[in-house]
Amino acid sequence: MLYLFLWWLVLVALGLATFPVAFRFLNALPDRGYAFAKPLALLLIAYPFWLLASFGLLQNTFGAILVTVLLIAALAWGVIGLRRARESALDWLRANVSHVVAVEAVFTLAYFAFAYFRSFTPEITATEKPMEFMFLNSILKSTDFPPHDSWLSGYAISYYYLGYVIVALLTKLTAVPSNYAFNLGLTSIFALSATAAFGLVYNLVRGASGETDIEFGNGQRGRAAARRPRAPYLFGFLAAILLLVSGNFEAPFESLHNARLGSRDFYAKLDINGLADAPQSGSLLPQDNWWWWRASRVVQDFD
Asked: Which of helix, strand or coil describes residue 148?
């Protein structure tokens, strides 16, 4: 449980550390890019660190990562924004505490909900998971980049691995064991995706209403902020649910087919590859261990 809270705390801190970058470059959005601050922070920190380590200017150590984080935060709150922009970012945060709390609530709810869900199946087995776990451990053990491939001694990882670098970076910052970090990385992807979906739709709905400012807490703007409409929040939350929870509704058809409800012609017309000929046990619970593969590939190409 300590690892779970520590990882969450570091993600929140990194988002705040680089928020002025989002505030300046996404300032046309009603929320000034606050909902995207965390994934942006991970990219702003991990990419320069990876690049400098690849050129041999840094080593893959806790100290080097911490220095990179502090330098990026200093640039975000200092050089990039200058004094006026820095004060604007602080003023915005002070004036929009309720919005900040709403975004953090979405992130936190998604984070801990998926962590609970993942706790039922935390095993790092099957499909690509052992390979991914190897990549994570290889990066953690490599002092320079490209990281060494643990499965092919003497060679570097020949794969796209920046995402693993990001998880490894968080692993070193939090000192979390890699087997916990693997699942926390999955949890983070879910939570960051939920927050980004929420932020995207929130900004679209808020912008469509003609209210492009959440703005600063003074005068009429401050009073307008206190009467912030609820619709953008409701649609933003719905977007996170639709993207990450509801899925594509293929599973009910799997259950109905397995229970032998409906004709083969009906399922063939649904055009879900392999569903019409899948084995049927007569129960609502699919017996085919690969049914989830069909569920992830319901859109087909035609000649």
From this structure: strand
Cα-Cα-Cα-Cα torsion 151, 154, 159, 160, nearest 10 degrees, comes to 120
More confident residue, 78 or 215: 78
Count the neighbouring beta carbons within 10 Å of the beta carbon of residue 91.
14
End-to-end CA distance of the chain: 51
- Is the predicted pLDDT of residue 219 greater than 80, yes or no? no
Which amino acid makes up residue 202? Y
User: How far, in Å, are 10, 74, 206, 281 from residue 289 at the CA level?
Assistant: 37, 50, 43, 13
Output the pTM of the full model. 0.85
* 9 vs 6: CA distance, rounded Å: 5
Cα gap 5→255, rounded to integer Å: 37
Indicate the length of the chain as a whole number. 303
φ and ψ at residue 148, rounded to 5 degrees: -80, 145
